[in-house]
């Protein structure tokens, strides 16, 4: 396999940014950037509030996601509210 072929088949790191509310325990902050996808240490929070996972977006989609959060009734707006409720210690309804 040539170097060119290995570059094509090598998986590119997935850069994502978190657009939900910051968590009280400090494990996740709004606009935190991750260079290799969603961190494993957040799995307990994602299990408790699945909307957290939906608020990780590719960096290229940040502006689009922010606009959707401000547009009431969009899935992004609903997910943001769920992350806010979870961050405030409220029970999250799916």
TrEMBL record:
It comes from the Bacteria. This is Uncharacterized protein.
């Amino acid at each position: 396999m040539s170097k060119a072929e290995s570059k094509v088949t090598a998986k590119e790191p997935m850069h994502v940014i978190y657009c939900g509310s910051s968590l009280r325990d400090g494990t996740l902050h709004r606009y935190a950037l991750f260079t290799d996808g969603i961190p494993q240490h957040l799995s307990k929070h994602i299990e408790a509030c699945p909307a957290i996972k939906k608020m990780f977006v590719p960096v290229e989609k940040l502006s689009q996601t922010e606009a959707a959060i401000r547009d009431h009734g969009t899935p992004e707006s609903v997910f943001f509210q769920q992350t806010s409720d979870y961050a405030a210690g409220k029970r999250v309804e799916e």
